[in-house]
UniProtKB/TrEMBL annotation:
Keyword terms of this UniProt record: Membrane, Transmembrane, Transmembrane helix
Keyword Transmembrane helix: yes
Lineage of source species: Bacteria, Bacillati, Actinomycetota, Actinomycetes, Pseudonocardiales
The name this protein goes by in its record: Uncharacterized protein
Region: Disordered, residue numbers: 1-27, 61-80
Source organism of this protein record: Saccharothrix syringae (Nocardiopsis syringae)
Membrane-spanning residues: 31-50
Highest rank taxon of the organism: Bacteria
Length: 80
């Protein structure tokens, strides 16, 4: 059974710069309304995350040392 060979030729061409001398296409710098919507959703999510984190950080005590821990350290220092 003979094998058939197929050859493919791919040609790449640079876009013309006649109408666009900077190499930027006509859509350069434009954004879609979907991008704006996504950005707004991210800002809303960050707002609620900051609000939640602030609420949790207010509940954190100024010091994690309790009276029992301070007394325990004093007793340990006296034994030495």
């Amino acid at each position: 059974m003979p094998l058939e060979r197929t050859t493919a030729l791919v040609v790449a061409r640079q876009p013309s710069t006649d109408k666009d001398p900077g190499g930027q296409q006509e859509d350069f710098g434009k954004s879609s309304p979907l991008g704006l919507l996504l950005l707004v959703v991210f800002f809303i999510a960050v707002f609620f995350l900051v609000k939640s984190m602030t609420k949790h950080l207010k509940r954190v005590p100024a010091s994690f040392d309790t009276e029992e821990t301070a007394e325990g350290d004093g007793k340990a220092a006296k034994k030495e």
